[in-house]
Design a protein that fits this description.
Blueprint: E1 12-13, E2 24-27, E3 33-35, E4 43-49, E5 54-55, H1 64-69, E6 71-77, H2 80-95, H3 98-102, H4 104-120, H5 131-137, H6 140-147, E7 160-161, H7 171-192, E8 196-198, E9 210-216, E10 224-226, H8 228-233, H9 235-242, E11 244-249, E12 261-266, H10 268-277, H11 282-292, H12 309-318, H13 344-349
Parallel strand pairs: 2-6, 9-12
Antiparallel strand pairs: 1-7, 2-3, 4-5, 4-6, 8-10, 11-12
Helix pairs in contact: 2-4, 4-6, 5-7, 6-7, 10-11
Bound molecules: zinc ion (2 copies).
One zinc ion (ZN) is lined by residues 27, 29-30, 32, 78-79, 81-82, 165.
Length: 354
């Protein structure tokens, strides 16, 4: 038998009959002994002795007698309370159709684990759930519940049950559960929250190069909307999702004289304008701006004075001035004065003149 960890109260040996067979099963969820009676659902799990304790992985030894001697079969069930909770979990998973999405085995197990976590936090089991509440329950929160089930730790005390339900939980377990609950609440809030404006990632260029930080090199916008949940889980990844690293000569951004290269990022709209014309430069800038204005009829017209925000940063740097602030809206640094009025039909259809 393995030695038990220093937990109070200590697990107690299961009662045995005169032949040494255990007469009780263990509640796989809360760890108490349950007398084996007719009709009690049982599950027998074989454990194998390892260097450090017991494992469900069979040893490599090919000698069956040795493997048998080194094994221990533990009988599991659920106590009345835990069986009731499990039934409620199955009902919830089926009612909310998670069983159909995940398959009943996974859905039932995760729902049960979530209810276990709620119980350990002394919170009521849910009755009416919204879709996002349910989704939140099935994430890391359910994993936290699974981690505290007795069965996940039973290899420490095979043949033993707990003197009272959940007696194995440590202050660290409670802390982990509280953390998981806090994270779940934050997820739920983030799921219903408006998108977050994400600025471009930090960028460095070669030594002495101009870096246009905080905005799109072309339209100058300072933030791109990203779902709040994505930002909460991985702010750096969220920024990398939407911003594309670039480095161009300032003249390609519309600077009138050579000012060296400018390093920075482009937003998704400007990145796709570049892709449409297969190259960065004036053509891409025109396309991005006129698309933003919903004036694609002006694309390919001779226009002057259009420049990307990054060109203004390069000019400011060449004069030793502070860079311009990123734009609150795309292309806010350009004026639409002097643009021809839209041809109503072409403007509506987005057709360009031939
Ligand atoms: Zn139980
Ligand atoms: Zn842009």
């Amino acid at each position: 038998m393995t030695t038990t960890e220093t937990e109070t109260p200590q697990p107690i040996p299961l009662p045995v009959d005169k032949d040494g067979n255990e007469t009780s099963a263990i509640c796989q969820t809360c760890g108490v002994a349950v007398p084996i009676t007719r009709g009690l659902p049982l599950e027998r799990v074989e454990f194998f002795r390892t260097g450090r304790g017991y494992s469900q992985e069979p040893p490599r030894s090919a000698n069956p007698a040795r493997v048998a001697r080194a094994s221990y079969t533990q009988t599991y069930t659920r106590c009345v309370v835990c069986a009731g909770r499990r039934a409620h979990a199955e009902h919830l998973a089926d009612t909310y159709r998670v069983s159909r999405q995940l398959g009943p085995v996974v859905a039932h197990a995760r729902m049960e684990a979530a209810l276990v976590a709620l119980l350990a936090l002394r919170l009521p089991a849910p009755t009416d759930l919204t879709k996002s509440e349910l989704r939140a329950l099935f994430g890391p929160f359910a994993r936290a519940g699974l981690n505290i089930m007795w069965r996940t730790r039973a290899d420490r005390a095979l043949g033993h049950s707990l003197p009272e339900p959940w007696a194995h939980l440590t202050p660290e377990d409670h802390q982990n559960l509280r953390n998981a609950y806090g994270a779940m609440l934050a997820d739920r809030t983030a799921a219903g929250a408006p998108p977050v404006l994400v600025p471009p990632p930090a960028r460095t260029g070669p030594r002495g190069a101009v870096v246009a930080a905080g905005g799109c090199l072309m339209c100058g916008v300072g933030g791109v909307p990203v779902p709040a949940l994505r930002v909460r889980h991985d702010p750096d990844g969220a920024a990398e999702d939407v911003w594309t690293e670039q480095g161009w000569k300032a003249t390609m951004l519309g600077a009138r004289r050579p000012l060296g290269s400018v390093y920075g990022h482009t937003c998704p709209a400007c990145t796709s304008a570049i892709a449409e014309v297969n190259a960065p430069g004036k053509e891409a800038i025109d396309r991005a701006w006129f698309t933003h204005l919903n004036r694609r009829d002006l694309i390919d017209r001779e226009t002057t004075g259009i420049h990307g925000w990054g060109a203004m940063v390069a000019v400011a740097a060449s004069r030793g001035e502070a860079p311009p602030a990123p734009n609150p809206e795309p292309w806010a640094h350009l004026s639409t004065d002097g643009l021809p009025d839209p041809n109503p039909v072409q403007a509506m259809q987005g057709v360009r003149p031939r």
